[in-house]
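Continuing the batch. This is chain 6 of the set; chains 1 through 5 are on the previous pages. Same settings as before, nothing changed between runs. Recording input and output for traceability.
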Amino acid sequence: MKRLFLLTVLFFNIVAYSQDMLEVVAKETCSCLEAKKAKRPNMSTEDFKVEVGVCMVKSYSDHLTEFKVEDRVTFDDKDGMTKLGENVAIKMLQFCPNIILELGRSAIKEKKEVKRENLSVSGEVTDIKWEQFVTLQLKDKNGRNYSFLMLDAFDSASLLTNDEIKKKDKLKVSYTEIELFDSKAKEFRYFKILTKLERQ
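Output for chain 6:
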């Protein structure tokens, strides 16, 4: 019983020690990033993500020998490094939650930007609706129908605003997809937003 008790105490001490080292790395990573942000307040999101990795790896390298052997990760172990990064990030919430939140926001922004990248389709104009927003309807060569909203100004927008586009006109339409609230459906959905019009 006594031996079991000693083993239990030893186990929790070892686990606590590893957790303490993660906290050291997290704290140093926070300090490193805050210093870099102070020097470069307008750092791009991509550069900031790189600096997160640089700061974390430097701190981990400095304290590598202080980790338990079984908890050490080699830099060519992709899964191990990912797990280490996740564990350190959780600890960083204690010391610099603003940085973790910033990383979260940038990840969400990147996900949305993928949706917003410019796309294009060619086809024949089937209708133009003049309501609160102008809606251009188009059918491509495969018979697929598209609806586009004009929400922003763009170079060739005058083709619509000056009523130069008519039904059956052939167009190449460039657009982005933005998530907006559909008041009729009472839900958020992606809408195609016009960015360029070209006659064909």
